[in-house]
Amino acid sequence: MDPVSPEKFSNLQVEVASLPRYEEAELSSLDRKYLLKLHIRTTISLLFFTAGLVAGYFFLQNNLNYFVGGFVLLLVLFGWSYYVNFQLMKRNGYALRQLDIIFRSGYLFEKTTVVPFNRVQHVSVERSFTDKLLKLSTLKIYTAGGAGSDISIPGLLPQTATSLKEEISVRIADHV
């Protein structure tokens, strides 16, 4: 390894307080139809669990105590799930900045992902069956070294997702 001369090498300390703060970015909300998608998924799960509860009632020789207890537990769990859906809609968001994109998700366990454009490999827009029915899209952003997408922003209108994809593609081309 070649020695580095002291006059060519510098490693100055960066003042942490002077760094930009991602928390100050104003996040854009997901489309309101995404809440409907979350409710549809929760309701489908509720139907499956209710069917299992009814089947269990018949297999337990019509024991009403287990059925009532299970039904109350089911109502509490799915009431909580619907509440979390509303909270996710209030808290999830994204922001496109000059050098990076931010996505915040989660309710109890909040996660904020900041991806600089110089790390982005490619961007795609995907639509599931439910997304097509509700006219929604998911923007997926892939970075170097990742097996899957590093940011997946659901609940976008198709034109918004396409616009974001094109803008990010332009910005990553500028970094190449």
TrEMBL record:
Keywords: Membrane, Transmembrane, Transmembrane helix. Residues 91-165 form the YdbS-like PH domain. The chain crosses the membrane at residues 38-60, 66-84. InterPro entries: YdbS-like_PH. It comes from the Bacteria. PANTHER family: TRANSMEMBRANE PROTEIN-RELATED (PTHR34473:SF3), UPF0699 TRANSMEMBRANE PROTEIN YDBS (PTHR34473). This is PH domain-containing protein. It comes from Salinimicrobium flavum.
